[in-house]
Amino acid sequence: MTNSTDDQPIIELVNLIKTYGLLPVLRKINLQIFRGEFVALLGPNGSGKSTTLRLLTGLTRPTAGRILVGGWEVPGEVAAVRAQIGLVSHKSLLYENLTARENLNFFGSLYNIPRNKLKEQIDHILEQVNLADRGNDLVRTYSRGMQQRLSIARALLHGPHVLLFDEPYTGLDQSAAATLDGLLQNARQAHHTIILATHQLNR
Ligand code: ADP
Ligand code: MG
């Protein structure tokens, strides 16, 4: 779902200001990102990376300025914006007492994916993140790396074009990091637009 054409930016921040009380976090950010670009937000802890990603997904409101994704604006058109965005954050947003499949079923229903299509999509996505054989196990029995892979599956489930990754390598073991490398590479080859926030240059 998009309102824009290829010569327009897929993401546009205009004079974006965010303050928490008296604390200025983002001071008039202007940024344009075009389809298929891979952008790194690099900065120390507390510099406002997570806040920027949360603003893009409508999880927090701008103090002033505009945020447009595919021509749609948050917070006013948040559903149209969220349909285009998948956010992978270090808070996994998963339900530990549900299985992986139950989690994905729940999140899929939030995006109004038709039932038969959802089942197919869940099978496909569990394959992609190497969890096909553990799909019926409770999430609380998962390692940190498996939970991270499932949280990536959750973010990709509704087929969003824009992918946001917030410190995705934090706490991953080597094999989970390698899976994430592969997923990022696939996403780039498929011309997804990717923003990756990190405080370290080497992962
Ligand atoms: P980063 O992701 O780059 O580490 P954050 O966006 O998490 O930075 O935080 C930027 C600043 O905003 C920090 O000073 C943080 O303490 C503050 N902050 C973040 N979220 C909130 C909040 N919900 N309430 C108050 N202050 C916040
Ligand atoms: Mg952060």
List key phrases describing it.
6 helices; 33% helix; alpha/beta; four-stranded parallel sheet; globular; binds magnesium ion; 203 residues; four-stranded antiparallel sheet; binds adenosine-5'-diphosphate
Protein model, in words:
The chain has 203 residues and is α/β, with parallel strands linked by helices. It is 33% helix and 25% strand. The protein contains 6 helices and 8 strands, in the order βββαββαβαααβαβ. It has a 4-stranded antiparallel β-sheet with strand order 2-1-4-5. A 4-stranded parallel β-sheet has the order 3-8-7-6. A hairpin with a 2-residue loop joins strand 1 and strand 2. Helix 3 (100-110) packs across helix 4 (115-128) and helix 5 (144-156) runs parallel beside helix 6. It is globular. The model has no long low-confidence stretch (mean pLDDT 92). It binds adenosine-5'-diphosphate (ADP) and magnesium ion. The site of adenosine-5'-diphosphate has 10 residues, from helix 1. The site of adenosine-5'-diphosphate (ADP) has 10 residues, from helix 1.
